[in-house]
Design a protein that fits this description.
The complex is a heterodimer.
Chain A (H helix, E strand, L loop, with lengths): L3 E8 L9 E8 L4 E5 L6 H9 L6 E6 L2 E2 L10 E4 L11 H11 L4 H14 L15 H14 L4 E5 L7 H18 L2 E6 L2 H7 L2 E6 L2 E6 L1 H6 L4 H6 L6 E10 L2 E6 L2 E3 L6 H5 L4 E6 L4 E2 L10 E14 L4 E6 L6 E6 L10 E7 L4 E3 L13
Helix pairs in contact in A: 2-3, 2-4, 3-4, 4-5
Chain B lengths: L3 H35 L4 H6 L11 H9 L2 H32 L5 H10 L5 H14 L6 H24 L4 H9 L4 H12 L1 H16 L3 H6 L8 H4 L11 H30 L6
Classes of the chains: A alpha+beta, B mainly alpha.
């Protein structure tokens, strides 16, 4: 059991006029894996440290299982945390590192030994119990840090960028290991990262933060498909969503959208919202929703944009990224293509755009303009 | 592979440095060696030829020096004073350094300034007032008084060295221990102290050496013979009209032998602790 409820949480650090965390409200269900995602300095680690009780709360509340934790010291919150630096006690061997928290809680010796050995076996650490942390590899240290959290059997797991010190290959395998462990144990977890791949693959839900505020909370694919604003649109996805200035023009009775010289269908957005934009809109399209040839021939939602100039071609092996310049559009864009892309830099091409995948944003507020009926 | 010629050139280029080091060793080690040789010769032998090598090793002089004066008592007094003072210094210094390095509290800068200002005050400046204070506290002529003076006098340097080291221990370790359920004091004992062991070792060795040889405070604050520490005991061999230089050298050797031994065994570790902050 361990639902976490954060209400109106704010943090101001001593000597700073700015709030590092602004009025964050977030609920993490029992057994849920919540990822806090954002660029560095967005306040996600501050939120985590306030939940852990390592940082005093300026205003707002943190509750675990309905009990307000603001004045409860960290050691009594029944929380375990995995740090980016692993924070293994360098003067203790692996066994003692794992047992340190249990000893303080007065768990009997044989029970400690049983629990430590079972966790060590589960994480493949059994041969290393007598080693000191400096004699372990990065991946092994990471597993000891995870084991130290698991062995305590806490209500809530907190992870502060636990994979960022690992090399790329190890990161993928450890990521899968973490997902497996968390779903096996079924304990509530809050995971802080700036890596969108970790967020997309690990979280049941992700909470995207920027400048101390929560921007959007939702299931990974929902957030990817329906970004709440341009920040989320650019932050999720690699390469990020293409954003382009478009003009809102009067076409007959209802307003239309024009990108460069191309007229885009605008009927799926409320006409009064389009009129209120003052003639300008931001349209967004993900690189995978642009095509060299129509994916659905005859589908009228796929329209052609002629006279696109290929700026650069980046073959990545499994796919090809093509940087393009569209006629009459200030921003360069990126298209994701298959591995046998035939376009060459300097060439002129006609690009197919799936209008069903278009996103529309208000340039003044950066907020997404929802389609009719959504 | 370097040719023999270039190897020679390299050696030649290094020779001024080598010469300088040799000179320095001779200047600093020479007097020590001289005293060491004199400690094995009798005074008439020394007066006849000050710089000669011992004709015969008078090892019996060491037993003589120990028994002829009150050396057993001096040695014991020195041990009591220095060991107690160093133990207190280490404990208090480590706690103060840990606090200054780890906690943000109102007045932290002032506390640090007050403690570290002890570094800039020369001991001669304080001796009159210390004398008066100890008299009033009835601690004059007592080992307890000297211990307290030593602790107060060397706290600044101890805190200075330890704080630099403690400040480098990652905050995450302390946070992890807090989440593991440990109180601030337990974290100090179980995390900060064991991890800070190399630095503690440095201050312990350094304080042992300095206090073992301390003369100024001891000579002013202890006058009774059975309270004296080793550096004062050596004065026994300096009468007002005559100087038993042979015995004086032997007494000196007895006094510094423990320190030489300590340094020989632990100098590597000590230097590592002192430079821990410089290179990472």
């Amino acid at each position: 059991m361990g639902a976490v409820a954060i209400r109106g949480l704010s943090k101001r650090y001593e000597g700073s006029a700015e709030l590092a965390v602004k009025d964050v409200t977030l609920t993490v269900g029992d057994g849920e894996f919540m990822v806090l995602l954002g660029p560095s300095g967005c306040g996600k680690s501050s939120v985590l440290r306030m939940v852990a009780g390592l940082e005093p709360i300026t205003s707002g509340t943190v509750a675990i299982d309905g009990r307000i934790m603001n004045d409860v010291p960290a050691k009594d919150r029944d929380i375990a945390m995995v740090f980016q630096s692993y924070a293994l006690y360098p003067h203790m061997d692996v066994f003692t590192n794992l047992a340190f928290g249990l000893r303080r809680r007065g768990v009997p010796r044989d029970e400690i030994a049983r629990r430590v050995e079972s966790v060590a076996a589960k994480l493949g650490l059994s041969p290393y119990l007598k080693r000191k942390p400096h004699a372990l590899s990065g991946g092994q240290r990471q597993r000891v840090a995870l084991g130290r959290a698991i062995v305590r059997d806490p209500k809530v797991f907190l992870f502060d960028e636990p994979l960022s010190n690992l090399d790329a290959a190890l990161r993928v395998s450890t990521r899968n290991e973490l997902i497996r462990q968390q779903s096996e144990i079924g304990v509530t977890a809050i995971y802080v990262t700036h890596d969108q791949v970790e967020a997309m693959t690990m979280g049941h839900r992700i909470c995207i933060m920027d400048k101390g505020e929560v921007i959007q909370v939702g299931a990974p694919l929902d957030v990817y498909r329906e970004p709440a604003n341009t920040f989320v649109a650019k932050f999720l996805g690699n390469p990020p969503m293409n954003l382009m200035q478009a003009a809102v023009v009067q076409a007959g009775t209802c307003p239309g959208l024009r990108l460069g010289a191309v007229q885009l269908p605008s009927a799926s957005w409320p006409a009064e919202r389009l009129r209120g934009l003052g003639g300008k809109a931001l349209i967004g399209i993900r690189p995978e929703d642009l095509y060299e040839a129509s994916p659905r021939p005859g589908d009228e939602r796929v329209i052609a944009i002629p006279k696109a100039t290929v700026l650069a071609v980046e073959p990545l092996g499994s796919e090809t990224l093509i940087a393009l310049s569209l006629e009459g559009v200030a921003e360069d864009i990126v298209m994701r293509g298959g591995r046998d892309m035939r376009l060459r830099a300097g060439q002129s091409a006609t690009i197919m755009l799936d209008t069903a995948a278009l996103h529309l944003f208000d340039p003044a507020t950066a907020l997404k303009i929802p389609r009719n009926g959504s | 592979m370097a040719s023999p010629a270039s190897l020679w050139l390299r050696k030649l280029r290094r020779s001024p440095l080598l010469l300088l080091i040799l000179l320095y060793t001779a200047v600093s080690g020479g007097p020590f060696l001289w005293v060491a040789l004199m400690s094995l010769r009798t005074t008439p032998e020394i007066l006849a030829s000050p710089y000669a090598l011992p004709a015969r090793l008078h090892l019996e002089k060491f037993a003589d020096a120990w028994t002829r004066s009150n050396y057993g008592t001096y040695f014991w007094n020195s041990t009591v004073v220095v060991v107690t003072a160093v133990a207190l210094l280490t404990l208090i210094g480590a706690m103060a350094a840990h606090c200054l390095a780890r906690y943000r509290f109102r007045g932290a800068r002032l506390v640090r300034f007050v403690i570290l200002s002890g570094l800039i005050l020369p001991p001669q400046l304080l001796i009159l007032s210390l004398f008066q204070i100890l008299l009033e506290l009835r601690l004059y002529n007592s080992l307890t008084g000297l211990i307290l003076v030593y602790v107060a006098g060397h706290l600044a340097m101890t805190v200075y060295i330890l704080e630099g080291f403690f400040a480098q221990i990652p905050q995450d370790l302390f946070d992890a221990a807090r989440l593991d359920g440990y109180s601030d004091l337990e974290i100090f004992w179980r995390i900060a102290l064991p991890i800070g062991a190399p630095a503690l070792f440095t201050t312990v060795t350094l304080n042992l050496i300095i206090l073992w040889n301390e003369f100024l405070y001891a000579v002013v604050l202890l006058t009774e013979d059975d309270k004296r520490t080793l550096p004062l005991g050596i004065m026994h061999f300096m009468g007002s009209h005559q100087l038993d230089i042979g015995m004086l050298a032997t007494g000196l050797m007895i006094a510094i032998l423990p320190i030489i031994l300590l340094y020989a065994l632990f100098s590597e570790t000590m230097i590592r602790g002192m430079t821990a902050g410089a290179v990472r």
